[in-house]
Amino acid sequence: MLQIPCPWCGPREEEEFRYGGEGMPIPADADDATWARVLYVRSNPAGSYAERWVHAAGCRQWFHVVRSTLTHELLEVRPLGTPDGEATP
Predict the structure, then answer these.
(1) What does the CA dihedral 10, 11, 15, 16 come to, rounded to 10 degrees?
(2) Cβ neighbour number for residue 17 with a 10 Å cutoff
(3) 1-12 pLDDT per residue, tens
(4) Nearest to 36 by CA among 51, 24, 53, 54
(5) Residue 4: is it exposed, middle or buried by C-beta count within 10 angstroms (0-12/13-18/19+)?
């Protein structure tokens, strides 16, 4: 089972979380075509993949995760709004 380190609650079982989609930035002036790409098109790379997760059974906070799609290793976990590279230890 995957252990996900919530930035607020610490490591928890995967069952407490819900996947929120690809972690791509959404422009403030996004049109319908942009929203359609955000909601329905996935890049599905082999390697590092930015995602959004929510701790649904805990603090209910959203956060970014960078995960390897090959090994499922979590490479980075950080709260939403935190700049890239400022991961939670």
Answers:
(1) 0
(2) 19
(3) 789 999 999 999
(4) 24
(5) buried
- The CATH number that domain 3-26+34-79 falls under is 3.30.2270.10
- Residue-level length of the chain: 89
Phi and psi at residue 51, to the nearest 5°: -135, 165
| DSSP bridge pairs for 50 | 66
Q: For residue range 26-70, what is the model confidence (pLDDT) as tens digits? A: 778 889 998 888 778 877 889 999 999 999 999 999 999 999 999
Residue with tokens 């929510």: 54
> Rounded CA gap, 31 and 2, in Å?
36
Sorted by where each begins, the domain ranges of the chain are 3-26+34-79
pLDDT of 89 strictly over 70: no
pTM for this one? 0.77
